[in-house]
Amino acid sequence: xxxxDASLPSEPAAIVIDGKSIAKQIRNELAVEVSRMKDAxxxxxxxxxxxxxxxxxxxxYVRNKKKACEAAGITSQEVHLPEDSSEAEVLPAVSxxxxxxxxxxxxxxxxxxxxxxxxxxxxxx
Length: 125
Known about the structure:
alpha/beta, 14% strand, hydrolase
């Protein structure tokens, strides 16, 4: 007869989770909270996105963020700038969103074109 050592922990069982279902639940909870915020405070959260260039992967990411905002009742604004934009063209967009009371978060989509990285990295810290 084999004796099992009770001091050794048994292997934990793997738990399979339904990521899509959990994500949907989180999105629904967020939409409820946004609605409560609007009703209680009269404030609708807002996201601003600055996209420099036209990388397809970045465009897809920004499009999905916009859809997620809409689903949650969050407003979204976008500025699309050409790939060859200078710091002098990007910073006014950041400044404009920074003082806009309807914007509560600013997403500057990365990666930025290489020409902007050194100059904006210091400014955006």
